[in-house]
Specification:
By secondary structure, this protein is α+β, with helices and mostly antiparallel strands. It contains 2 helices and 7 strands; from the N terminus they run ββααβββββ. β3 and β4 form a beta hairpin.
Length: 71
């Protein structure tokens, strides 16, 4: 069961979302992690921190867990 993360805007960038979920602390860490490892967004590998996430999207971060974007 994915952990729910609530946003108050229409969408959020992947980089901002990772910081909001308290997975990584800084933007530099997020950038490096996404370039080197990437995450799964709705089952597809993603390396762009500018990727827009909307309510209903699921982000899976290896060895951390899954997160559901909600509004």
């Amino acid at each position: 069961m994915p952990e729910k993360i609530t946003i108050r805007t229409e969408y959020i960038s992947l980089g901002q979302f990772i910081k909001l979920a308290n997975v990584l602390e800084s933007g530099g860490m997020v950038k490096t992690y996404l370039q080197d490892v990437g995450v799964l967004v709705n089952g597809e590998r993603e390396h762009r921190r500018g990727r827009k996430l909307y309510p209903g999207d699921v982000v899976k971060i290896e060895e951390i867990g899954s997160f559901l974007v909600t509004d």
